């Protein structure tokens, strides 16, 4: 890579080079430890004599801005007290728009990036140790070989045909999805799928119905497009369809495993939702984020499989099943919006990175994904059992679990007034990360309680962590003697 230096005219050539290199080092544009081109190469690139460049390097070395290593080269040595970089002070025409983006909420961002405690009940994360590294490595090597055949070319906007076909087959097998591979759009995670659908379907002022409580990132995505986002209450049967207002264009739901409370949407409520959306001409986004793991009862049909009107966009992700850093998800689109969403995808990022797509297609096709899901199912079932033991036993006086038959998180509702913030603070001091349900409400929380993810905490650690939580509860919210005596020991 050429070093960005501009030599003007034929006067003071060494001075020009010195001033530009000195300013680049002092301003931080050239970073500490960065290697400069050899003097012979830089002289050739700039049309200077090698002696001119060598003299400048010597001068910078004398000023301790460069350090030479014999047989290796010249390296930047940043001064200890570098001045602040200069920032543009020109008033920008887009200043108000920039300020609005700066003020836009980014929910769950801090929780996803902060260092978790020793015992973390964080949601949406799997245990990396259980991921089949050897099988994935073999699939990546296969992907490198495949990529070599098409290197230097952009991939299909909607995704590689092999992966789209693999996703269509997997979704049909596991969730009863009815689709062709042409309806499958490969995305960089489920969040991008939500963003693409919002860009395609919404204009400023349009009404979007979301669950309350619900996934705050989805709400933020829709609001960022200028939509009027309306929270619709949920009960034990899921979203209360009768509250969806007239004029709604988009409805976002998590019917298989309501986020964050956990209950599934009843069949009657699903039929009612489809009818209401059809009357409104609205698209339903079905976020099927973690229903691959089911522990009891018969599997529920996906909303998309019940759709007779062509109005359900089914969104899925491999981040929670596999690893979040893979950033691979998909949307199964209604035929009526396929072309429009593909156009938006093209304008957004052209296509999702091909290497991971080749690997995932191989991973699914060879059966590794289903085997991984089956292995994790048994692991998560054991963790879920330990949570049920504690919240149906020693912690029952303080909390009640919301029944949930799928996924890898549960919600625990407070049984009596309880200082949840104090509980979270003291738990963190004990190296336990807990999360409040109130963070998933846009307005005033109707229920106080805890959101407990168990994808990233080992089964044995659950007992240790909840024993600490029990001790904290006995300190901050002690029970009457007769109630405390009735609690079972862990």
Structure description:
With 490 residues, the protein is an alpha/beta fold. Helix content is 41%, strand content 14%. It contains 17 helices and 16 strands. The protein has helices at residues 13-27, 39-46, 50-62, 95-103, 109-113, 133-149, 161-175, 190-201, 216-224, 267-280, 303-306, 338-349, 354-365, 368-391, 420-429, 459-476, 481-486, and strands at residues 66-69, 73-76, 119-120, 184-187, 207-212, 228-235, 238-239, 248-253, 283-287, 312-317, 329-332, 399-401, 409-414, 432-433, 435-436, 449-453. The strands form four sheets. The protein has an eight-stranded mixed sheet with strand order 4-11-10-9-8-5-6-7, with helices on both faces. A four-stranded antiparallel sheet has the order 12-13-16-15, with helices on one face. The chain has a two-stranded antiparallel ribbon with strand order 1-2. Helix 2 (39-46) crosses helix 3 (50-62), helix 8 crosses helix 12 and helix 14 runs parallel beside helix 16. The longest helix has 24 residues, at 368-391. The termini are far apart.
Low-confidence stretches: none
- Count of discrete alpha- or pi-helical segments spanning 4 or more residues: 17
Strand order of the largest sheet: 4-11-10-9-8-5-6-7
> For the CA atoms, what is the radius of gyration?
28 Å
- The average pLDDT value, as a whole number, equals 91
Shape: globular
Please outline the major beta sheet: 8 strands, mixed
Number of strands: 16
Assess the beta-strand content as a share of residues: 5-15%
Distance between the termini: 63 Å
Helix content: 40-55%
Report the structural category: alpha/beta
């Amino acid at each position: 890579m050429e070093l960005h230096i501009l030599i003007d005219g034929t006067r003071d050539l060494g001075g020009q080079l010195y001033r530009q290199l000195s300013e680049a080092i002092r301003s931080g544009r050239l970073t500490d430890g960065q290697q400069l081109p050899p003097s012979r190469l830089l002289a050739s690139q700039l049309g200077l004599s090698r002696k001119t460049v060598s003299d400048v390097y010597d001068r910078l070395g004398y000023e301790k801005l460069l350090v030479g290593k014999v047989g290796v080269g010249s390296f930047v040595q940043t001064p200890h007290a570098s001045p602040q970089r200069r920032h543009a002070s020109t008033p920008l025409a887009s200043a108000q728009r920039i300020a609005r983006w700066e003020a836009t909420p980014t929910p769950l961002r801090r929780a996803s990036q902060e260092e978790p405690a020793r015992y973390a009940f964080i949601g949406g994360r799997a245990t990396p140790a259980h991921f089949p590294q050897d099988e994935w490595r073999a699939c990546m090597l296969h992907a490198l070989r495949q990529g070599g055949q098409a290197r230097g070319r952009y991939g299909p906007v909607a995704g590689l045909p092999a992966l789209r076909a693999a996703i269509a087959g997997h979704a049909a097998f596991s969730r009863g999805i009815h689709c062709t591979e042409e309806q499958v759009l490969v995305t960089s995670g489920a969040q991008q799928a939500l963003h693409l659908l919002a860009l395609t379907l919404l204009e400023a002022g349009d009404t979007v119905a979301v669950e309350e409580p619900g996934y705050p990132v989805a709400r933020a995505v829709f609001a960022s497009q200028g939509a009027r986002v309306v929270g619709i209450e949920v009960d034990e049967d899921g979203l209360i369809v009768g509250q969806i207002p007239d004029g709604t264009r988009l409805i976002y739901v998590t019917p298989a495993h309501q986020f964050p409370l956990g209950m599934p949407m009843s069949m009657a409520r699903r039929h009612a939702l489809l009818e209401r959306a059809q009357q409104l001409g609205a698209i339903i986004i079905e976020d099927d984020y973690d229903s691959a793991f089911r522990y009891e009862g018969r599997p529920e049909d996906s909303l998309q499989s019940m759709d007779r009107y062509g109005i359900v966009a089914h969104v899925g992700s491999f981040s929670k099943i596999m690893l979040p850093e893979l950033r691979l998800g998909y949307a199964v689109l209604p035929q009526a919006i396929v072309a429009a969403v593909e156009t938006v995808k093209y304008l957004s990022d052209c296509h999702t990175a091909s290497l991971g797509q080749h690997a995932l297609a191989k991973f699914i096709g060879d059966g590794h994904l289903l085997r991984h899901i089956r292995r994790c199912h048994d692991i998560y079932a054991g963790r879920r059992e330990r949570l049920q033991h504690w919240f149906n036993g020693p912690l029952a006086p303080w909390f009640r679990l919301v029944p949930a038959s799928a996924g890898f998180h549960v919600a625990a509702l407070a049984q009596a007034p309880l200082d949840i913030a104090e509980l979270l603070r003291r738990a963190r001091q004990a190296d336990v990360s807990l999360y409040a349900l109130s963070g998933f409400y846009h307005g005033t929380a109707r229920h106080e309680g805890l959101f407990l993810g168990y994808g990233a905490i080992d089964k044995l650690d659950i007992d240790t962590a909840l024993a600490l939580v029990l001790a904290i509860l006995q300190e901050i919210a002690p029970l009457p003697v007769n109630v405390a005596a009735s609690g079972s020991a862990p």
